[in-house]
């Protein structure tokens, strides 16, 4: 069976090795005579898988002791609400930087909870760039500052993060967590839906500094209260056991690749190949992101005409490439090249782009 050249934005490609192992263990996990989906979430076998997934994240991101790693449900979208519900008190406001549709959505949910301010935005510039960190006027009285570290739809990514003194920096890292080395201690909260770099959809990772977890918030529904999940090691209710199992396998796979440092080097290599195909096309492929804001995870570009774009996507699909159409909200093309997308697939795509340009212009 030929695996697809999968450039989906999420859910996205998973490492083949992980899928092969999951298939092998599917009917009989750990000699239990059961599939992982049939295990009790209170069983010793599942608890060990659950703890391995959490420990894997701690090891790979060098998460300091004063952080809690939570495995929740509801996707990154529920975090848009949980963040303000837990961290935005009535006498404070929260600051947001708008760099794309997901930050807009995060802001919209926070507005329902409390007072918010937009301290920077690239909306007027069609979200082609990330505002310069040195130009941000960070309000040290804010409850927190929220950013989206990688903008999946527009294909832009923060390289330097704002340095906040007393204001917790909160990052939606759904589409670039574990793709590059980061200093977790710079952040108050990092959250990410798993379905791009971490595993399948269904589990959401929240890395939160322990002092930000407030106990006894009687006004909060239990399921939306970080302290409840932290107290029960994310086993307050039935967790998405299959997704957590796959997360644990992906963590092992990343370790086998040499950890995040090695993954980051590979990601740069992959992204450079495709950006080179854009840059060397003499304007045939038009990258959406400004050069210094380019994402190494989602590469967005347009072709000279709608007809050329249609033909490109049609031929790409015939070739076996999947998921190259841009997000329905902005159109164009997008190649999502998360950790599990092999270098060979990026080489093939870059070569395809060059060949397509040459034959189209003949
Ligand atoms: N934030 C970012 C940056 C995303 O790319 C996405 C989904 O693609 C989301 C949030 C929404 O995630 P979920 O579908 O897990 O709620």
Q: Can you describe this structure?
A:
- With 362 residues, the chain is an alpha/beta fold.
- It folds into two domains: 16-256, Type I PLP-dependent aspartate aminotransferase-like (Major domain) (Aspartate Aminotransferase, domain 2), CATH 3.40.640.10; 259-361, Aspartate Aminotransferase, domain 1.
- It has nine helices and 14 strands.
- The strands form four sheets. The protein has a seven-stranded mixed sheet, sandwiched between helices. Strands 11-12-14 form a three-stranded antiparallel sheet, with helices on one face. It has a two-stranded parallel sheet with strand order 1-13.
- Strand 6 (150-151) and strand 7 form a beta hairpin.
- Helix 1 crosses helix 6 (241-256) and helix 2 packs across helix 6.
- The longest helix is centred in the last third of the chain and has 21 residues, at 259-279.
- The chain is globular.
- The structure holds pyridoxal-5'-phosphate (PLP).
Outline:
The protein is of the alpha/beta class and 362 residues long. It has helices at residues 16-24, 44-60, 75-87, 101-113, 226-231, 241-256, 259-279, 306-319, 343-361, and strands spanning 5-6, 67-72, 93-98, 115-121, 145-148, 150-151, 156-157, 169-172, 189-193, 204-209, 286-287, 298-302, 321-322, 333-336. It has a 7-stranded mixed β-sheet with strand order 2-10-9-8-5-3-4, with helices on both faces. The chain has a 3-stranded antiparallel β-sheet with strand order 11-12-14, covered by helices on one side. Strands 1-13 form a two-stranded parallel sheet.
């Amino acid at each position: 069976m030929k695996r697809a050249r999968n450039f989906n934005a999420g859910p996205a490609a998973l490492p083949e090795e992980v899928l092969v192992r999951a298939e092998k263990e599917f009917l009989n996990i750990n000699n239990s005579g059961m599939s992982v989906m049939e295990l009790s979430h209170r069983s010793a076998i599942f608890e060990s898988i659950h703890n391995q997934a959490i420990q894997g994240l701690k090891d790979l991101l060098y998460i300091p002791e004063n952080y809690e790693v939570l495995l929740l449900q509801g996707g990154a979208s529920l975090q848009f609400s949980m963040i303000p519900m837990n961290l935005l008190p009535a006498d404070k406001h929260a600051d947001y930087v708008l760099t794309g549709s997901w930050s807009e959505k995060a802001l919209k949910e926070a507005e329902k909870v409390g007072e918010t301010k937009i301290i920077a935005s690239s909306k007027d510039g069609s979200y082609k760039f990330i505002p310069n960190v040195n130009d941000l006027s960070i309000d040290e009285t804010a409850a927190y500052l929220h950013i989206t570290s990688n903008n999946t739809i527009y294909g832009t990514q923060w390289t330097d993060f704002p340095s906040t003194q007393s204001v917790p920096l909160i990052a939606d890292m759904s589409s670039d967590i574990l793709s590059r080395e980061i200093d977790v201690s710079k952040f108050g909260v990092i959250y990410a839906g798993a379905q791009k770099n971490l595993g399948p959809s269904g589990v959401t990772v929240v890395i939160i500094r322990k002092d930000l977890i407030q106990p006894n918030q009687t006004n909060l529904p239990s399921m939306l209260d970080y302290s409840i999940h932290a107290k029960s090691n994310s086993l307050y209710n039935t967790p998405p056991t299959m997704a957590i199992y796959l997360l644990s396998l992906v963590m092992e796979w990343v370790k086998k690749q040499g950890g995040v440092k090695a993954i980051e080097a590979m990601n740069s290599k992959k992204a450079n190949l495709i950006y080179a195909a854009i840059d060397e096309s003499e304007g045939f492929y038009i990258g959406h992101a400004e050069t210094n804001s380019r994402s190494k995870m989602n590469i967005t570009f347009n072709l000279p005409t709608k007809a050329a774009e249609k033909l490109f996507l049609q031929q790409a699909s015939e070739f076996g490439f999947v998921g190259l159409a841009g997000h329905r909200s902005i159109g164009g093309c997008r190649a999502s090249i998360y950790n599990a997308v092999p270098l060979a697939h990026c080489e093939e795509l870059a070569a395809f782009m060059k060949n397509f340009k040459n034959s189209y212009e003949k």
